[in-house]
Amino acid sequence: MPASRGAYHVAVDDPAGVYVSGYYATGGFTTDSNAASPIHVAAVDVTGINMKLPAPVYIRGTVTGPGSTPLRGITVMADSLAYSTDATTGADGKFAISVVAGNYHVSYCDENGVYGSGYYSAGGLTTDPNAAAPVSVTTTDRTGIDAELPLAIHITGTVTGTGGVPLADIDVSIENDTAMIDEATGTDGTYSAVVNPGTYIVSFMDMEDAYQSGYYSSGGFTTDGDAATPVVVTSADVPGIDVQMIALVRPAAHITALPMWIASTSIAVHWSATPGTYPIRSYDVRYRRAAWNGRSFGAYVTWKSGTSSTSATLSAAAGSTYCFSTRARDDWGAASGWTAETCTAVPLDDRSLKRGSGWSAKTGSRYYKSTYLQATKLGAKLTASKVTARRIAVVVTTCPTCGSIKVYWGSTLLKTINLKSAKTVNKKLIAVVAWGAPKTGTLSIRIAHSGKKVIIDGVAIRGT
Questions:
Q1: Same domain assignment for residues 352 and 447
Q2: In sequence order, what DSSP letters do the residues of 254-290 get, joined into one string?
Q3: What is the model's pTM?
């Protein structure tokens, strides 16, 4: 067979079931995958990978139903520590399983659920795996490994939800100390499970988390395992193991709206949640960021994961727009949806603006990032190129003796702003423009009158 460079294990299987399956080994054919020898392929053909399969040895028997009726299509499995395989009964109920020497447990199963399952034992079919009789195989066939299967016993019921609506694909688990049977409800909400005589606890789980998990009880569906009613099975079907599951109300997460802009590189974010069915356990918080000269937002960044806190402060990059959202999880593990985003813009510092003549760079603790630019010259200009923005604001100082500025987008005047105020106000954010969609261009600020001071502390450029 064609093969590229590499190391391979070669396996053989007889679809007819006459010979056992196994692997190539330098010491001879083996049924143990751990003993298989790797075959290394380089630049030339690898030959001589020969195997001699052992002469077939069989476990044989006949499977019948009530009244010694031969049963067709029953799966018979032979299982040992070294080798496992199976076969299916023919129209006459007979089977032959090709095996290697060893001690096997032989089991019988009707995949259609009409007849019961169990294990071979010298005293007849048993449902207890601990009572199964080992079938020893050496060099000759083992015959007479027969079983008579009883009609299957079923636990059946219907699972509904709010308003009695049938629930499909609900996991139904039926278990006791020796067995656990898993079934799923059909489109009509019904289920049927083949069981052996015994006492069982029946539980229900919605993998979509639309409904609470719980148990059958004679008083109705319960989420308390201690209140579950045992289902006793003797020799007949047990119908009516019905439940109406309780809808799972997910938590609803909330995030406090942020201001349009913030004259700080520290963003305080607050979040909370309204509990649903179960108490709130934790929160996830994420954000995405767009730079003042970037055309789009980056990918979401997980900021907080599984936190029980309801607030935190992000150290932000100047000249960026940040958008935050959160979701909550409850004690069951059910998550809310992500909240709508709340966004804010952190200004670009004055030191990032290109200065024309007339501007003085100064510092002070009362200013954004402790720096500012001051000028009095008519037409003194500050510029930021390749700006991408939907909204723009300036960070300024207003005062009784302050002048005024003009803000341009390219050659278009956006706004004239008078900076005179009764009292001095530092780090004041004044909105300039809001467009319907982001634009990319050159932003400039110019002093509108000479002789009066203008203090520029930064520019807030928001991408949303």
A1: yes
A2: EEPPPPSB-SSSEEEEEEEEE--SS-EEEEEEEEEEE
A3: 0.64
